[in-house]
Design brief:
By secondary structure, the protein is α/β, with parallel strands linked by helices. Among the domains are: 171 residues, Rossmann fold (3-Layer(aba) Sandwich); 32 residues, no CATH class. The chain is 45% helix and 12% strand. The strands form 3 sheets. The protein has a 5-stranded parallel beta sheet with strand order 5-4-8-9-10, with helices on both faces. Strands 1-3-2 form a 3-stranded antiparallel beta sheet. Strands 6-7 form a two-stranded antiparallel ribbon. Helix 6 links the parallel strand 4 and strand 5. It is elongated, with a radius of gyration of 41 Å.
């Protein structure tokens, strides 16, 4: 009896189960069909017409508020961009202690490597490293700019020398601004003292006051020999002692970047600065090139 009642109960449940599913699905279908289709329709709203006078008044109020609030707060100064020193070198009038400090011009060498002749250029010692006085650097750089400008204004030939790695673009840019010559390779000994033998095959030309070539002086130039620079700017004097010695023998003035381990008597116009920093060398070379460019423009302006 128990087994029979259990079997009947399970049979009733099995028969009633699909009927409930069909009933529930039919109910859902009936409810979904009873939804109002108008509820899904979107009504377009009509925008009111725009008043032109109100827009103009709002714009004027915005501009007035902007002018008033722009004067509030701090003034943002121009950012320091080192790459512009090569593309757009600063002029001698732009020399400042802040610019020299940002270019790492004040960093010297270890105190164990210093040259006692540079004692007047040293500001102090910081963690075993000599600190160069930026006042001395600025004053000597301005003096060198005056010399370069004077030579270029009188039509002199300026030679820019930088033989260290990374100084090629610096000397080329400075020579382009000055209208002079550049050297970024090894200096050939005797190029000045024995220039007739080493540079005898180099072509020379005669120019007028406007730097335009004059024809008809080829025979006279062959007997004249190689030209000598009127001023030499050396960015790394430690590696070019032979060049500086030849300039001294021929009474050619020189300008050089002198670090704390170099001898300032090697050059005529020393510039105490960090010769190991390309940023510092880039600044000095660009400023000297701008000074020569100003002198050359002044000469061409007087000629015309």
């Amino acid at each position: 009896m128990i087994l029979r009642s259990t079997a009947l109960r399970q049979g009733r449940r099995a028969v009633a189960r699909p009927i409930r599913c069909l009933h529930s699905s039919a109910t859902c279908l009936q409810q979904s069909q009873s939804l109002d289709p108008t509820s899904y329709s979107f009504s377009s709203r009509i925008q009111p017409p725009v008043d032109g006078d109100q827009v103009a008044r709002d714009y004027q109020a915005f501009k007035h508020h902007q002018e008033v609030t722009n004067r509030i707060g701090s003034v943002v100064s121009p950012k320091y961009q080192p790459h512009t020193q090569l593309t757009q070198p600063p002029s001698p009038d732009d020399i400042s202690l802040e610019l020299l400090l940002a270019s790492q011009s004040h960093l010297g060498h270890s105190t164990s490597l210093w040259n006692p002749a540079n004692a007047r250029y040293i500001f102090g010692v910081r963690q075993g490293v000599h600190i160069i006085s930026l006042d001395q650097t600025a004053s000597h750089l301005r003096r060198a700019c005056a010399v370069v400008r004077g030579v270029a204004q009188r039509g002199g030939l300026i030679l820019f020398v930088g033989t260290r790695e990374g100084q090629e673009r610096i000397v080329v840019k400075a020579a382009q601004l000055a209208g002079g010559c550049h050297l970024f390779d090894r200096w050939i000994p005797g190029s000045i003292t024995n220039g007739a033998q080493i540079l005898g095959r180099c072509r020379t030309k005669v120019v007028d006051e406007n730097d335009k070539e004059i024809k008809g002086f080829e025979e006279q130039l062959e007997a004249k020999g190689a030209l000598k620079p009127d001023l030499v700017v050396c960015l790394n004097p430690l590696e070019n002692y032979v060049l500086l010695h030849e300039c001294g023998l021929n009474n050619i003035p020189t300008i050089g970047v002198i670090d704390t381990d170099a001898n300032p008597t090697w050059v005529t116009y020393p510039i105490p600065a960090n010769d190991d920093s390309l940023r510092c060398i880039n600044l000095i070379g660009g400023v000297l090139g701008r000074a020569a460019e100003a002198g050359m423009k002044s000469r061409l302006g007087q000629a015309s």
